[in-house]
Write a structure and sequence with these properties.
Distance between the termini: 32 Å
Number of domains: 2
Pfam families: Peptidase_M24 (PF00557)
Shape: globular
Organism: Paraburkholderia youngii
InterPro entries: Creatin/AminoP/Spt16_N (IPR029149), Creatinase/aminopeptidase-like (IPR036005), Pept_M24 (IPR000994), Pept_M24_MAP (IPR001714), Peptidase_M24B (IPR050659)
Largest sheet: 6 strands, mixed
CATH superfamily of the largest domain: Creatinase/methionine aminopeptidase superfamily
GO molecular function: aminopeptidase activity
Helix content: 25-40%
Keywords: Aminopeptidase, Hydrolase, Protease
Length: about 400
């Protein structure tokens, strides 16, 4: 996907959000309205994702019916929200923040009156809906806000809305898949780009910098860049350090980014110099497990069977005692989402689901290695989104 293609997709974000809302209500016909305070679900239903969420917990909400949507956000955030949503009337803001506007430009003056605080603004926005006798899904972990909503709107029948949102998000719409393809593509290219620069003496931070730059140039936002070497490669999800690579080191890279909120997650392993016999044999076992999983991805497959296929294949190789709590996971607006490829899952794969499949191995004092890829479940099998070599890279 080119920059032009990505720009066109970004322009269609509002249309995608409308399609996601329609999909939600088609999969949750028992609900008339959904109220969410989960930032992931706010983005899913509105199409707006606030950069303020990256700075820590930030109070936002979305309310949606089959024919209307509103966003509740902080006053400082409203200008960015307006750029994305292009409809001032649907943005309810709380707090005080001053942003001027040139005459004739949509502005804060076109929005509903600002609220003093988050809770009061949520209540005010809800009052703009007719909730008499409606079946309302409420998706929040804020017990205080939940009690306030129950007290203020006794005429509505509330139920937990989170399971319905999870069910709707399990399969992806075509525009969602396009974002996931782009996120996976630039992550794939980022990992490929480091191979020529890696050698003894280069630091983990040097590699992380190269990966991060490639992702940003491709239009993505780096989310986790795990580069660990030598014994540190056994340290799960550790930050890169100013550690220089040495001959014989394993280098484990586990990388993810987002494009318009949609995630990538993939991993590769390399060795500095030729791998030892043990390194090569262990990696071959892990690769066999991951490839066996990939071959089994198809609609109707049982998730727990995919897990067992991976474990059995690895154990036939140089890791006969191999253990994992999962061998992959769904991916979309979160890097780990429903369903997990786990031994106790009774979920059947469906066309439109997207999975990361992986077979990592970590041994403190020795090192770690992994291979991880992303695939869409299609009507007749799967589509791999990550295409770089899965072999154990060897660098000088």
């Amino acid at each position: 996907m080119s920059y032009a293609d990505l720009a066109l997709l970004e322009q269609q974000t509002a249309d995608l959000a409308a399609a996601c809302r329609a999909k939600f209500f088609s999969t949750a016909p028992e609900l008339d309205v959904i109220i969410t305070m989960d930032p992931v679900h706010v983005g899913y239903l509105t199409g707006y994702r606030s950069i303020l969420q990256d700075a820590g917990p930030y109070a936002q909400a979305a309310i949606a019916t089959r024919d209307r949507m509103v966003l509740i956000t902080g006053a400082s955030d409203a200008a960015a929200a307006l750029e994305q949503l292009d409809d001032a009337s649907c943005i309810w803001r709380y707090g005080t923040f001053y942003v001027g506007a040139t005459a004739g430009v949509a502005s804060y003056a076109d929005m509903p009156a600002q609220g003093e605080n988050y809770v009061d603004t949520v209540v005010s926005a809800l009052r703009s809906f007719d909730l008499r006798g409606v079946r309302a899904g409420l998706d929040t972990r804020d017990e205080r806000l939940t009690r306030v909503i129950w007290q203020q709107f006794p005429q509505a029948a509330f139920q937990n809305g989170a399971p319905s949102l999870k069910r709707a998000r399990a399969t992806k719409l075509p525009a969602e898949l396009a974002f996931l393809r782009h996120a996976s593509h630039i992550t794939d290219k980022a990992l490929e780009s480091v191979v020529p620069m890696v050698h003894a003496g280069v630091t983990e931070l040097d590699i992380a910098q190269q990966i991060t730059g490639t992702i940003v140039r491709g239009g993505g936002i780096p989310r986790f860049v795990v580069v660990t070497s030598g014994e540190r490669s056994s340290r799960v999800d550790a930050y890169a350090r100013n550690k220089r690579l040495e001959a014989g080191d394993l280098v484990r890279m586990d990388i993810g980014c987002t494009v318009n909120g949609y995630c990538s997650d993939m991993a590769r392993t390399l060795t500095v110099g030729a791998p030892s016999h043990e390194q090569a044999e262990r990696y071959a076992a892990l690769l066999a497990g991951e490839q066996a999983q990939i071959a089994a991805l198809r609609p109707g497959a049982l998730v727990s069977e995919i897990f067992n296929i991976a474990i059995d294949a690895v154990r036939k190789g140089a890791l006969p005692e191999y253990q994992r709590n999962h061998c992959g996971h769904g991916i979309g607006l979160q890097s780990h989402e429903f369903p997990s490829i786990a031994p106790d899952s009774d979920v059947l794969l469906e066309s439109g689901m997207v999975f990361c499949v992986e077979t990592p191995y970590y041994e403190l004092g020795w090192g770690g290695m992994m291979v991880e890829d992303t695939a869409i479940i299609t009507d007749d099998g799967h589509e791999l989104l990550t295409c770089s070599s899965r072999e154990l890279y060897q660098v000088k």
